[in-house]
Design a protein that fits this description.
With about 170 residues, this protein is of the alpha+beta class. About 50% of the residues lie in helices and about 20% in strands. The chain has a four-stranded antiparallel β-sheet, with helices on one face. It has a two-stranded antiparallel sheet with strand order 5-6.
C-alpha cells in the first residue's frame, strides 16, 4: 500500500515472514532514505496511512498468528502501535523516539505546535544535541590520540662506520 504525505511517499507491505516492510520514495518516484523528522501535519498523515495499512492487512505478522486467541491479539495491538510509532516508518528514521521526546519537552515548556516559539525550542534542542555529539566525538578522538601516543615504539638504526665517520638511517614505528 502506498500513501503520500508532504514531499514523500511511503510504501508498506507484508514480507514473506509476516513483518512489515517499508520503502520511501520522493514524489517523482525516486527512492530515498527514511526521513529523520516529520512535522505534526506529516506525522498525522503518516499515522493515518499506517493505520489504514494495518487495518487492511487484517492480521498480525505470521509469528503471532498461529494458535493465538483473538483476546491475546487485542491485548498485543497497542504494543505494535507503540513499536511502530517509536521506530518510525522503517530503518529507525522518521518519527523516532528522539523527535517524540523533543516534542514532549517543548510542549511541556508551554509552546504550541506551529508557533515560532515552538520552532525555536526544537532548534535549541537540536543545537544542544549537536553540541553534545561534537563533545563526544572530541572526547573519543582525544582517547584515540592518547592511546596512539602511549604505544611503545620500535626503532631500527641501519648505519656504518667508515674511516671513523658514522652514518646511517633510523626509523621508528
Amino acid at each position: 500500500m502506498k500513501f503520500q504525505f508532504g514531499k514523500l511517499v511511503c510504501e508498506l507491505s507484508l514480507g514473506s515472514d509476516g513483518s512489515v516492510e517499508t520503502r520511501w520514495f520522493r514524489r517523482d518516484g525516486r527512492r530515498t532514505e527514511a526521513p529523520q523528522y516529520l512535522d505534526a501535519a506529516d506525522r498525522r498523515q503518516y499515522r493515518a496511512g499506517r493505520d489504514a495499512f494495518l487495518r487492511a492487512a487484517g492480521k498480525l505478522p505470521a509469528r503471532f498468528s498461529t494458535g493465538t486467541s483473538w483476546c491475546a491479539l487485542q491485548r498485543l495491538a497497542p504494543v505494535f502501535v507503540v513499536a511502530a510509532t517509536l521506530t518510525g516508518c522503517a530503518g529507525g528514521g522518521g518519527i523516532g523516539l528522539e523527535a517524540m521526546v523533543a516534542d514532549h519537552n517543548c510542549e511541556q515548556a508551554g509552546y504550541q505546535l506551529g508557533t515560532p516559539q515552538y520552532a525555536a525550542c526544537r532548534m535549541e534542542l537540536a543545537r544542544r544535541a549537536d553540541a553534545n555529539a561534537a563533545a563526544m566525538q572530541a572526547f573519543y578522538a582525544r582517547q584515540v590520540e592518547i592511546a596512539r601516543q602511549n604505544q611503545p615504539q620500535t626503532c631500527i638504526y641501519n648505519g656504518s662506520n667508515i674511516g671513523g665517520i658514522t652514518g646511517g638511517t633510523m626509523s621508528c614505528r
